[in-house]
Amino acid sequence: MSDPDGDDLPATPDWRDYPWETVTRDVELDGRRVHLVDLDQAGDDRDVVIFLHGISASWRWFIEILPEVAETHRVIAIDLPGFGDSEIFWRKTSFTALAETVAEVCATLSIDRATIVGHSMGSIVATRLAIDRPDLVERLVITGGPILSLTGLARNPLQTLRAQPRSVATLLAELMTIGVPLPAPVSRMVASSPRLLKLALGPFLAHPERLDPDLMQQVMSALGAPGSFPALLSTIGDDPGTDLHKIACPTKIIRGPKDPLSPPVDVDRFLAAVATASAVEIPDTGHWPHIEKPSDFLSELDTFLREVG
């Protein structure tokens, strides 16, 4: 399979043929169920990469690239509490609390160190984890981020709107599209229609009409997560962008230049605060580089993992 620009997409093993039912399971934390997938086909659980999804999403947003990464690493993708198939922890909905949950999952799985890959909202959780648990985070990868300006929306709505009107408008558009659950027939119809994909996802992706229908069906199968709005509202009293300077692990931002939710000012602020961070852009992508151009994303991720391995 190849993308519209002629780049080969991951073909071995193909995600469609992967035995997902054998790697999908739940862990229990404080009487609540956390859903995850755990791929260890590399046979070495010491080199772990953990994927954290974005808002209203689930682990399935990484479904195409997980088997490829699992050829060389143990790969875990978590449905954060209140998202996907995980139960919501109503007393732990802030980004700091979500990061604590990831640390608890790692403890349950006997993971002492890991590379954390966070997309969009997941990048905020990953960042908090790197700040609060530097002993756990070996490397940090941010994609569809960093998300810094928008975390001030709940605290200072008018100021944030004036400073980043496009980002705010795009976030609202995202919440009104992927932020609501869709009946299966509707999601199948949207996933298979380039015109509907462009209409729904055009505000934050470069070429949504080019996306693979099978993949989009997976992506859209768990929309409307109850944890979305509590996480956003938690930023009223909990600014997840504080103490960025405490991040000491090697950090890579893999972003799309057409990403309206993570404007250049956010990237500049992050790079100025985190001495160990660098950034790379995947041309002609927006807010979902790992979905829009998976081969390019995997190449950048593999390079980073090898360079700081």
Give a written overview of the molecule.
With 309 residues, the protein is of the alpha/beta class. The chain has a single domain (15-158, 225-307), classed as 3-Layer(aba) Sandwich (Rossmann fold), CATH 3.40.50.1820. It contains twelve helices and eight strands. It has helices spanning 66-69, 95-108, 121-132, 157-163, 165-177, 184-191, 194-201, 213-219, 228-233, 264-273, 289-292, 294-307; strands spanning 24-29, 32-39, 48-52, 74-78, 114-119, 137-143, 251-255, 277-281. It has an eight-stranded mixed sheet, sandwiched between helices. β1 (24-29) and β2 (32-39) form a beta hairpin. α2 (95-108) packs across α3, α4 (157-163) crosses α5 (165-177) and α6 runs antiparallel to α8. The radius of gyration is 18 Å and the shape is globular. The chain starts with 23 loop residues before the first strand and ends with a helix.
Features:
309 residues, Rossmann fold, eight-stranded mixed β-sheet, 12 helices
